[in-house]
TrEMBL record:
Name listed for the protein in its UniProt record: Glycosyltransferase family 2 protein
Region annotation (Disordered) ranges: 321-342
Domain of life: Bacteria
TM ranges: 234-259, 271-297
Record domain Glycosyltransferase 2-like: where: 3-167
Organism: Thermogemmata fonticola
Length: 342
């Protein structure tokens, strides 16, 4: 089965056309033998989208509608759809009709060829410049920081093996970082150029605040992917650098006062070395805090890993286990013991 997860927010006028296009895709020979389901997640729409979803679900048994109590964001809507999906392959696409459902067979083929996550790439993006330019800057920044080289991390048109989604949990604005999070766990990532269409109805929900939130979430994802299991390497290293600068600063100030020619005690020099001493002491306090925070983070990681049973295992071979043997091997009785027994 293939599960299509479609998060929507105020897309009432696009839903009927979207379902018709999806139905036409499954009438083609390219997806013969695949069953399918569509999960439309209404992320707190206020334009009557839920009523349209209910109407469409009444006429299409393979359509499932989920309605969130309020607008939680795209990541939460996708997470709800992933939890409800039953397919071996899960494909996400936006509900604004800019993603072309006719690309679905190509995503399925890419997954069958060995990819665990297939990310769409809108080569010719049909969006206004104030969305395109920040998105390109963001994509290059993500690729540079994380090492996952994709042209379009923001593209909502993606395909996943179900195994990937069982190991991930999205929150905040992390839906655009799923390939990064999946790559960190050893899954294979691929990119597929897709046809992008201009919006027919409605308006874009993009706001400039999303760029700020994306940068903050990028910092979180960078820490999770690089230092999730070794936080002391980042916090402790930064703490040691601050501590070294603090020691050097204190030694320099004290040395200037003790072995200097006395000019350091003048009214003009007094303020300078006193400021340097305060900065050095502040760096020392920051060093202690970072080292302590790193130690506490390491304890949390150890505790968490002891409860994690996933281990990132991809496959198993059949295990033919031998019959259990006694832990204590009894030595054969000696001749004297045998004679006494007789």
């Amino acid at each position: 089965m293939i599960s299509l997860v479609v998060p929507i927010y105020n897309e009432r006028d696009n839903l009927r056309d979207l379902l018709q296009e999806i139905q036409r895709v499954w009438q083609s020979a390219e997806l013969a033998g695949w069953s399918w389901e569509v999960i439309i997640v209404d992320d707190g729409s206020t334009d009557g989208s839920w009523e349209v979803i209910q109407e469409l679900a009444a006429g299409e048994e393979r359509l499932c509608g989920l309605r969130l109590r309020r607008n939680f964001g795209k990541a939460a809507a996708l997470q709800a759809g992933f939890h409800a999906a039953r397919g071996a392959i899960v494909i996400t696409l936006d509900g604004d009709l800019q993603d072309d459902p006719r690309e679905i067979p190509r995503f399925v083929q890419a997954v069958q060829q060995g990819a665990d996550v297939v990310s769409g790439w809108k080569v010719q993006r049909r969006d206004p410049w104030h969305k395109v330019i920040p998105s390109r800057v963001f994509n290059r920044l993500v690729s540079w920081l994380t090492g996952v080289r994709l042209h379009d991390h923001n593209c909502g048109f993606k395909a996943y093996r179900a195994d990937v989604l069982r190991e991930l949990h999205l929150y905040g604005e992390q839906h655009r970082f799923v390939p990064v999070l999946a790559a960190e766990r050893g899954f294979r990532i691929a990119e597929l150029p897709v046809h992008h269409r201009p919006r027919r109805y409605g308006y874009s929900k993009y706001r400039w605040q999303r760029f700020i939130k994306g940068l903050l979430d990028l910092g979180t994802v960078f820490f999770l992917t690089q230092y999730e299991h070794r936080p002391q390497h980042l916090l402790g290293s930064t703490g040691l650098i601050c501590g070294t600068l603090a020691v050097v600063g204190v030694v320099a100030c004290v040395g200037t006062l003790l072995i200097g020619d006395g000019s350091a005690w003048s009214s003009t020099a007094w303020a300078g070395w006193l400021l340097a001493l305060l900065v050095s002491l502040t760096l020392g306090l920051i060093s202690v805090q970072l080292l302590t925070s790193g130690l506490l983070a390491e304890l949390i990681v150890v505790r968490t890993m002891s409860q994690d049973e996933s281990y990132g295992i991809a496959e198993r071979t059949p295990c033919k286990r031998a019959a259990p043997t006694s832990a204590v091997l009894k030595s054969p009785p000696s001749d004297e013991t045998s004679a006494a027994s007789a």
